[in-house]
Amino acid sequence: MIQQNLFCTKCGNRLKKPTSRFCFKCGNPVKDKATAMEQVPLDSLDGFGFEALCQRIFEKAGWGKVEWIGHTNDAGRDLIIHGNKGKIVVECKHQPNTPQGRPIVQKLHSAVTTEGTNMGIIVSTGGFADNAKQYAHELSKQQITIQLFDLHKIAQIA
């Protein structure tokens, strides 16, 4: 995953607006800025590290406040996004080369219902099996949205 951020080369402060004329922290002129590209090798992350990365990506992309549940018995809820689209339950699966099947969609559907919302996202580094895609599509007919984000989709958001 690569993420770009503008920062002041004098103090390292990240600039919130690329159109700013001065760094608000040290007063350095904006012409003295650089672009940081954060590279995160996914192979170095365990499941909890991947959840934390997804939390940062959703927050920095402006989806809203992201609550990290972060426990092993999380009932299918790794993250909960509180944003302008309402409450979104997120399940993160960092299992490269292992497509997620229908059972993970069923588990998230249960978590979404338990949370009293109608939207969920599964982020998977291994992609999704056809039966997972089909079931997520069927749920949309019941007013419940389960979005499936593979590695390419989450990289786009980042």
How is this fold's topology laid out?
Layout: E1 2-8, E2 33-39, H1 47-60, E3 65-68, E4 79-83, E5 86-93, H2 102-114, E6 119-124, H3 130-140, E7 145-149, H4 151-157
Parallel strand pairs: 5-6, 6-7
Antiparallel strand pairs: 1-2, 3-4, 4-5
Helix pairs in contact: 2-3
Account of the protein in words:
The protein has helices spanning 47-60, 102-114, 130-140, 151-157, and strands at 2-8, 33-39, 65-68, 79-83, 86-93, 119-124, 145-149. With 158 residues, it is an alpha/beta fold. The strands form two sheets. It has a five-stranded mixed sheet with strand order 3-4-5-6-7, with helices on both faces. Strand 5 (86-93), helix 2 and strand 6 form a beta-alpha-beta unit. Helix 2 (102-114) packs parallel to helix 3. Residues 32-36 have low confidence and may be disordered.
Summed over residues and divided by their number, the pLDDT gives a mean of 83
Q: Count of helices? A: 4
Shape descriptor: elongated
Number of strands: 7
Q: Show unreliable segments.
A: 32-36
Which structural class should the secondary elements be placed in? alpha/beta
